[in-house]
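thread: overnight batch results

M.L. [08:02]
morning all. the overnight job finished for the chain we discussed friday. pasting input first so we're all looking at the same thing
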Amino acid sequence: MFNKKEYNKKYNLEHKEQIKDYHKKYNLEHKEQIKEYYLKHRKHLKIIRKKYYESHKEIFKNYHKQYRLEHIEQRRDNHRKYYLEHIEQRRIQDKKYRLEHKKQIRELGKKYCQEHKKQLREYGLKYREEHITYIKEIVAQNNARKKGLGFVKVMPNPYPKGISISWHHISDIYVIAIPTWFHCKYLKKLTVDKHRQELEPVIERLYGNTINNMLLCYG
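M.L. [08:03]
and the structure it wrote out:
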């Protein structure tokens, strides 16, 4: 008995490229008619597409998953290119969305934090451990700003990653890196001027140079 469905399937597979070329050519030659038809039957076509998707959900899911895996770099490049070309438009849209959905975003964020409390805590601890020097620098900058002080480094931090450092103000503007335990040792119950005065000889021994010379050379 002749099976039309199987025959069509076999024919489509054997003539895949020819069918593809034919449809491409037809679409180009009848662009306006196709557009008109789609606009006229929009609702009906939407129902058909939705029905077809629902009945082939797993096939679509597997196809898209496979496609993403095979085109990782291409998709990344396309996203990056699109983002750069529409960066201002995206910023405006994001800002508008955040303003219109402020409460919803807050609730989603709160819910996510509650559901992923352990992972977020572990991530926070790991991030702090890996970026402790950077975090301390940001905190020191903020504290200096609150006190009306500047935060200009006399030189970059010379200490290796394993040594905890603090940024010490050698003047109202300039700071220098010293080991945290040194900084804390001379911090207790001292005024700002006394704190600087007490640490001055320590810093000069650490760096093998006077503070005035360091400011002249690096500041």
